Input
Amino acid sequence: MAAAKKTTKKTTKKPVKKAVKKTAKTTARKGATATSKKKTGSSAAAKKPGVNKVSKKAATKSPAQRASKRSSDYDQSKIQVLEGLDAVRKRPGMYIGGTGTEGLHHLVWEIIDNAVDEAAAGYASHVEVLLHKDGSIEVTDNGRGIPIGKKSDGRTALEVVFTELHAGGKFGSGAYSASGGLHGVGASVVNALSSKLVAEVDRDGATWRLVFLDREPGNYLSSGKFKGTSKLAKVKKVPGSRTGTRVRFWPDLDVFDPEASIEYEQVRDHVARVCFLVPGLNIKLHDKRGKGRKAEEFVAAGGLADYVDYLSIGETVTDIVTIHDEASFEEKVPVDGKVTMVNRQCTIDVAVRWVKGFETTIVSFVNTIPTSDGGTHVAGFERALSRVANEQLLSETKKLKKLAKQGNDRATPNDIQEGLVAAVKVTFPEPQFKGQTKQELGTPAIQNLVYESVKAGVADWVSGGGKKSQINALREKMTQAILNRVAAKQQLDLRRKAATLSSTGMPDKLADCRLHGMDSELLIVEGNSAAGPAKQGRDSETMAVLPLRGKVVNAGKASLKQVIENTEAQALITAIGGGSGPDFDVAASRYGRIIILCDADVDGSHIRCLLLTLIYHHMRPLLEEGMVYAAQPPLFATKHKGEMVYAYTDEERDKIAKKINVPFEKWKRFKGLGEMNVDELAETTLNPATRVLKRMGMDDAKRAKKAGELFQILMGNDVATRKEYIVSNSSLIDHDLLDI
Ligand code: TSJ
Output
């Protein structure tokens, strides 16, 4: 599911007082300040104490190369480690989505979320976030402290967490899940993109420190010089019971865009959201940059239900329904090149409510990680709602009966989710993420687990668990959503049709005249080829041209709806402007004459019949008032003494040919109006002084209607009927009806 999907949105709302406690007090600890020497330039390495000597020469070398030169501590494997981090620096976008503000925020979330994970696991109750004036970020928790015991290679977990890419994957379900097991990028990515990082752990009666300078682990000597080493520095003694982790990092200005910045509001939103995910967790946030802000403290007592309440705006339709379920699934995981099946435990937590508005808010999480692009858990959730809404809540709804007959009564996800406020959270180890910024859950098995849990939970609520009045209100809300959608679509279809009319309300293809009144004319012209010359040859003051392009509906046969929906009929009715049917107002007609201009062939007479039938059925007063004419284009033309001479029938041509003594070969035969040039058309059908028109009356129209039926038979695809008709009525076709 894309982030842009309808109105689903990220939780970027301001914390609500009810759910969030604030305090102005701040208790920033000073432990990290010993290493917080100010960075003054963008080329951080050159200006750092203790690095100056090396950095001038080795500026173009990788930290790994520098490290290998500088200290014998570093064996080949360590160089590889640092080169791994260099890969992150080469393509930061692959790990944090970019090097702008968003990417920078990713670093902050990574560190905060690791502390929050410790709290989610039940080991920490307080987290503190400090935004320092020097651009560094410091996060402290009171959890167990990242383990500091030496492993066989002399390195500590603390070092590994910050130097090994995806260390969490390697540690897997082991002890060090905080370093990446639950998270997208891992703390090593933060180190990779920082010029300096200071990690401190309170454990065993002391504060232990490891500094990473340009990703390389070590510590400052008392001289101020930096020494690369895996050995932790014992900073000071603390009470034996005190445990916790503190991480402060300086984003590398060589990596991030100059305009990238950490935005307080965003940090605050992140922190507020995280509080809802870990009930009871207390997070203090203090921005010391700029003029300085008062510290804010966030605590949320409840879980997702509190969150949904916090997100609910306006009057509610239902209470909050919560679902908690546990399930397991199998997953194929590659372990040392071999694919093994592992069993995963998964908990599913959902809180839903509907409010009276129309917006949809679905927030989703995997463990404590927000999945702003949704994913398989959200897909399962939405599918379950669709299922319960359609199969249970809305079935047999009276107001939907009519739509049900058209098979149009199903609620779409949009109908169901109008006014929905929901939080969906799944908790399980090693989730897979998809998408550019890895904010979409990909683990496939999750979809069905969530689907089943939510289906059962919501079904229970609908069939007894919930208040009757609320369930009825929800049914009514969704029913209205469906009805509104269907009505809106019809409206849209109508408007789309109207859009084919120009802004004046007239059909686009109408070439109107400037003056309207008894002396104006509408020329209905068959086909495009004749429309051009007609437009050119007309007197545009009083003559309008409406070309017909598509099929004209047979108004003698069609339903009113079919007529209304016929583009050509619509164009004609609109152009004439007197309305249609019993309401037709002849006085409102925009033209004094309606002139049908069709070819003198079978197709032409068919179209003329259809037009007459249409007028007969829907604008009859035009016929009654004698306002409808058929143009009589000539069939033959010839030149005599520099003037055109026209003939309208074979007989007429023969007569004239004799009289003016022009042989047959010198006559031109028009197969259609389109074959005439502008002057010919103007003279024969447009110029009132020279053209021949035939007035159409009611009788003509009635005959046309009959002829229309005949044409239907002649031109329709019912071959048997057609054959029979032609055999038994051949005389009628030739002489009577066709000659309209
Ligand atoms: F992101 C991070 F790694 F840099 C980081 C981690 C940053 C911050 C501010 C805190 C933490 C963090 C990690 N806090 N708490 C922990 N906990 C552990 O790493 C930990 C401690 C003990 C055990 C154990 O099994 O004894 C296991 C873990 C994962």
About this structure: The first strand starts at residue 126 and ends at 131.
